[in-house]
Amino acid sequence: MPASSHTELQPVRGTRDLIGEDARRHFHVIDTAREVAATFGFDEWSTPIFEDTRVFARGLGDSSDVVMKEMYSFTDRGGESLTLRPEATAGVCRALVSNGLTQSLPQKVFYTGPMFRYERPQKGRYRQFHQIDVEVLGSDSPLADAEVISCGWMILQALGVAHDTHLELNTLGDRESRDAYRGALVDYFTAHQAALSEDSVTRLERNPLRILDSKDEGDRVIVAGAPTIEAFLTDAARQFYDKLRNHLSHFGVPFEQNWRIVRGLDYYSHTAFEFVTTQLGAQGTVLGGGRYDGLVEEMGGPHTPCVGWAAGVERLSMLLAEPPAAPRSVVLIPVGDAAEPIALDVLLALRQAGIRTEIGYRGTLKRRMERANKSGARAAVILGEAEIARGVAQVKDLSTGAQAEVALAGIVAHLS
Ligand code: ATP
Ligand code: MG
Predict the structure, then answer these.
(1) Which of 101, 140, 167, 382 has a CA that sits 20 to 30 A from residue 15's CA?
(2) Each residue's pLDDT tens digit, 135-192
(3) CA of 312 to the centre of ligand 1 (A)
(4) Euclidean distance between CA atoms 188 and 193, whole angstroms
């Protein structure tokens, strides 16, 4: 149905267009992350934006906010329940199994793309947002945890935002540690049940660890007095955590212990971490991750220990001090009909040399010069008929205003 001429169509609530400076910030974050991840040997994967709903809503074990309240699920024309992915990890684990890669481990994956959650939109929180993501699939070594964390830290450094963020690190121990801790938490929170928020009373039954992560003010007061997992860690869990912390020190990644960091889902174990900034108010977590051991099994694969993180591209973009500079073009200005074919030859040669080059589609010399200046072009190549006859062109440096006569054959070298 075409929009009537009176309708002003806007992007859907919680979604954004990325144009100009916004787009440059966004892609700078992604390009930088991709480059850093490559130095660790991560390979980039891409999986579908929508999946069978069961990829994300697995059985009854999952009580996370995302699965309970935030999913964009719909029934397609064939009657199947599909969901726009709220995160990358589940799809990546599904793909590991679907593609028969569970015997070719570890797989080190870099991922980026849009994610979808039905949330209340606010600064740093959208309904379509973007993540970068790294996962090591199929290693139970704490070195894998240290590598993914180091990768996150090096990306923040490469973006120039590391000084604004700090790493909060925790362990959730192994199953034995966690079961013991869970019991202690249930006792503690049951004793304070009357003062807990409604959400947290629900969590008390489903997943008491999640209460530690509550954003409710009243809950936070109670959480402050809750026991920590430290006293419940088995020797094996403690050793794992010690190794991780040693590796992080080797890699030069500073961290703080935070016993309150949990990841919501049941399949998380050992490492949990967040990179947090004070710059973005309530949306201060820019990167979060941890170790998860049961997810590939839930996709129908064998037991496969994994560790990874996801970071919000929008939040990282906001932290960038300066937007990346707009790229500057060389602009060709042919003057007179006879100059145009030569201009096209020069245009092709400059582009083949990898130089960003544009040509106006119409206009007088004066108009074209004005537009070149306004667009922030770095140089203008003026090709007049008389000059072409002599085999030269005028090249004007638009930053300095300096103009030089350059042989046509030497233009590429002059502008490289
Ligand atoms: P929060 O506590 O802020 O809701 P989360 O625990 O739901 O975060 P994760 O699922 O761990 O977030 O996702 C990793 C990162 O993705 C977050 O740290 C954040 O930077 C980003 N992120 C999550 N949800 C959104 C959203 N709705 N809009 C923008 N970025 C988001
Ligand atoms: Mg959330």
Answers:
(1) 167
(2) 999 999 999 999 999 999 999 999 999 999 999 999 999 999 999 999 999 999 999 9
(3) 6
(4) 9
